[in-house]
Backbone:
């Protein structure tokens, strides 16, 4: 699918500055750049008032996710392990997800271990346990529980993920060179314990995506993760091909800052696209690149943009929900900003900014019908991040600001001429003054 003509490709060097000039009318300057004059800001606020699009700050996915986490936490606090075991196993075997595709088993696993993990994170952050908290006792309690239920892979996953989370709390997100030796040793000790627990259960025998996903989560603790990385994720994706989160995680781990490089990332994106073509079409290619591009925009030099945008279109057609529409719109908008800056700084890939802009405009016109602020907030800092420590309210506020600026862009001329733009489930209506 050609998203821009050869004439546009040849004129990209001229068209891109024009797009930048246009967008600067409503998109605020970065820190260090000249700020818009007060009159320009007032004009934008006036334009924004005429952009009528629903804001959904409590999506069904968010509500369902929170309820599922709370259920897992409640059952763990009540020590109703058999009931928790049954629920996690049932969700896992049925591949049950929220409306946006988050596995219910993962949410319950997170809730069930969250008390112990939060206590450990607090102790490591502040140098002492929270008041009335003994996180070592919490670790021991879950270990004793596992001894009493040695054949339950569901309960084993709770304890294994607890160790993985605490291992990361010790290590932090810094580079290998910056990790202190004591922190490194604690990281590997917890990962080794998690590996011992999971080695007792085969994901294929149990037909369990949750087990396979946990094994992939152990890879950062291996001596040579790249050796097993691709094969482990291919096995996971084969078990649960409908879930794009596995593809997104694979792409992130193949970044140079982790265990791979962009050449391997692109190759694996094509392999996964072929593996999942019957289900996702070209979307597998886009999903593998998805988080990687926001974490490290250098990858834009390597990505095949027409293939990527074909994948975006296929993903939207196969899901048809507002979660995916917001996800893709936020991603393309952010990638467009990155590519535009790279072109002006270094002259790289003049074909990218107009292609990404046109893809973004397509999503807004044909798919986006409401704004999910948290998605846009996460996109602004990269989806694969440590945003659990960031206030959701602040993240949503920032996301809404970015989304309103972005969604106004395709309608800028009409808004400036006095039109009011209405988004409804049926489509977009532009009313002249």
Residues:
């Amino acid at each position: 699918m050609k998203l821009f003509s050869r004439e546009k490709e040849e004129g990209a060097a001229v068209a891109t500055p024009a797009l930048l000039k246009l967008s600067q009318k409503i998109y605020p300057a970065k820190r260090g750049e000249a700020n818009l004059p007060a009159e320009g800001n007032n004009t934008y606020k006036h334009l924004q008032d005429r952009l009528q699009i629903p804001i959904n700050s409590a999506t069904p996915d968010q509500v369902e996710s929170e309820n599922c986490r709370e259920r897992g936490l409640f059952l763990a606090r009540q020590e109703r392990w058999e009931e928790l075991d049954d629920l996690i196993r049932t969700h896992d075997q049925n591949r049950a997800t929220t409306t946006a595709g988050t596995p219910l088993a993962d949410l319950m696993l997170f809730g069930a271990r969250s008390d112990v993990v939060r206590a450990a994170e607090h102790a490591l952050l502040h140098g002492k346990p929270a008041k009335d908290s003994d996180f070592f006792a919490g670790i021991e309690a879950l270990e004793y529980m596992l001894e009493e239920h040695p054949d339950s892979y569901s309960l084993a996953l709770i304890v294994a993920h607890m160790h993985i989370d605490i291992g990361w709390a010790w290590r932090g997100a810094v580079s290998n060179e910056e990790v202190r030796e004591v922190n490194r040793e604690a990281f590997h000790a917890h990962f080794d314990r998690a590996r011992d627990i999971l080695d007792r259960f085969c994901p294929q025998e149990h037909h369990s995506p949750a087990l396979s996903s946990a094994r992939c989560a152990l890879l950062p603790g291996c001596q040579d993760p790249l050796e097993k990385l691709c094969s482990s994720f291919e096995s996971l994706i084969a078990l649960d091909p409908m879930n794009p989160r596995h593809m997104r995680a694979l792409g992130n781990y193949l970044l140079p800052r982790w265990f791979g490089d962009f050449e391997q990332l692109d190759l694996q994106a094509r392999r996964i696209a072929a593996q999942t073509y019957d289900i996702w079409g070209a979307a597998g290619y886009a999903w593998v690149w998805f988080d990687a591009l926001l974490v490290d925009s250098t990858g834009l030099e390597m990505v095949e943009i027409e293939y990527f945008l074909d994948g975006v279109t296929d993903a939207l057609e196969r899901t048809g929900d507002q979660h995916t529409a917001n996800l893709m719109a936020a991603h393309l908008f952010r990638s467009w900003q990155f590519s535009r800056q790279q072109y002006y700084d270094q002259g790289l890939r003049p074909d990218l900014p107009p292609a990404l802009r046109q893809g973004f405009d397509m999503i807004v016109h044909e798919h986006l019908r409401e704004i999910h602020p948290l998605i846009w907030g996460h996109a602004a800092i990269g989806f694969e991040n440590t945003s659990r420590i960031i206030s959701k309210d602040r993240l949503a506020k920032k996301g809404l600001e970015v989304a309103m600026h972005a969604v106004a862009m395709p309608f800028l001329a009409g808004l400036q001429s006095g039109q009011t733009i209405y988004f409804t489930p049926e489509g977009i209506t532009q009313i002249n003054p």
In short: The first strand starts at residue 51 and ends at 52. Residues 322-346 form the longest helix (25 residues). The two ends are 37 Å apart (CA to CA).
